[in-house]
Amino acid sequence: MSSDQISVTPCTPQIGAEIGNVDLTKPLSEGQIRQIHEAFLKHGVIFFRDQDIDFEQHTRFASYFGHVHIHVGGAGTASKPVDGYPAIRRQHYDKDSARISGEVWHSDQSCAEVPPTGSILIQKIVPPDGGGDTLFASAYAAYDALSPQMKAFLEPLSAEHDGAKLFDKGTTTQYPKATHPVIVTHPESGRKLLYVNAGFTTRIVDLERDESDAVLGFLYAHLAKPDWQMRFRWQANSIAFWDNRCTQHYAIWDYWPNTRSGYRIQFEGVARPVR
Ligand code: SIN
Questions:
Q1: Pick from 150, 129, 155: which is nearest to 260 by CA?
Q2: C-alpha–C-alpha distance, residues 117 and 143, integer Å
Q3: Annotated catalytic residue 168
Q4: What are the helix (H) ranges across 73-197?
Q5: Ligand 1 atom closest to Cα of 249?
Q6: Which of 43, 161, 180, 249 is flagged as catalytic?
Q7: Catalytic: 254?
Q8: pLDDT tens-digit readout, 34-43
Q9: Distance between CA atoms of residues 245 and 116, nearest Å
Q10: Ligand 1 center to residue 259 CA distance, Å?
Q11: Alpha-carbon distance 40 to 72, whole Å?
Q12: What is the DSSP letter of 233?
């Protein structure tokens, strides 16, 4: 293996891969960046182990893949920006936490007109007895498994995504709201995927309310099937880097009163989701 050849070990056939033979505390070569980007596109979420990166190194790694993004969630979110690094959110949960971020199936900030392209999350402290895993699901595989009739029914529909559904915990903040197609084409892979999520999607705008509730209920249950999901077990200095355009995730809060503490960076989306 040449020195800039990374290793890619798939987690499941549908989603996820562990990346090895790379040190993210050091600047990466063009070849390493290209291989990581290819693995990210192919597997939807990629993982790195034993990467003791600081805020500068975290920012540098994200900047290889796009512009870093300032979170739109406002006062109601459970994560907080890091002093001096407004694009890095501290996601720290312990015995005093009333809630955590992401304890529902969602793609990050789909309530934005142009949602973030991806997220890079590192854990620095993990619970001593396990727990705090993150589930990831492939919205490509969920779409592929639908019948041709269901695909044709969903194809012309659009859905509203409202930040208040996930973020509003009694604050007065105005949250973003956006309408996106229910079936989206990924801008880089050209593959179609299901683009509704239980965290942000409130209704299918083309349907009556009870019809919308029934269809969304079916789609959320379909997206949550284990057939196209995986579960990532964190260690200290593990990193998950997900493609927010074609995956959903769910953070499990089964570790209270223990502590799980990490930092997340997102990078800006470049275009609205389209059919
Ligand atoms: C998130 O939704 O970004 C949080 C994911 C996690 O903490 O595992």
A1: 129
A2: 19
A3: no
A4: 139-144, 148-154, 163-167
A5: 2
A6: 249
A7: no
A8: 999 999 999 9
A9: 8
A10: 14
A11: 24
A12: P
